[in-house]
Write the structure tokens for this entry.
Amino acid sequence: MRWEEISRTLEDRPIFTTVQLASILGKSPEYATEVVHRWISRNKITRIERGKYTTQSDPLLVASSITWPSYLSIWNSLSYHNLTEQIPHSFWVFTTRYRKNSVLSILNTQIFFIKIDPSQLFGYQKIVRDGIEIFMADPEKAIVDSVLFKKISIPEIQEIIQLKANRISKQKLIGYSLRTRNVALIKRIGYMMDMSGYDFFYRLKGHIYDQVTILEPNLPSKGLIDHKWEVKDNVGK
């Protein structure tokens, strides 16, 4: 088979393996390995990691297919759902799989893999771009992931909640927060929603306890305590 024929077969796949290529060629895996080395040297394909390759030039089409199950979140999801004007230059992949390499540098960008508990594998959807399936977090799950894994500052999250409220399902955001069973996260989300004019205390009060939670864990612990939520606001003015 000529490269033109094979490339048409591969172009609808985000990633292919040497085993899959061997099946397409009707040859042995060893022969397929020789072929991919030749294609790499001719810049026809890109090596993702051992045994995995792609013909794609856009990392968005590749990132959520490297490890399964997984989905894109944080800035990638917030940007996709028009909750931020920031254009992400890296990719954040959430997966239940352990990876020896938690960072990959491919296609002129970095892909960060964040391992999560299987119970946290929810709140994402399948989208299609250029005929390829991509798994992307819902906007509400992207906010929860950002707060839970401390990847975006609280002021930035607060701004998104305030300015993009029409693009967020408040009920879903609260539901996703409760589903994490992380009390500190529930209190932070509840407090930020309250400060934005959306009071869900009646749904969350069973998760409020006397120990004070720092609103922004990456800043010094100083500020006023909101005893309704038992949250110390160390970022408020």
In short: The mean pLDDT is 94. The CA atoms of residues 83 and 164 lie 6 Å apart. DSSP finds nine helices and twelve strands in the chain.
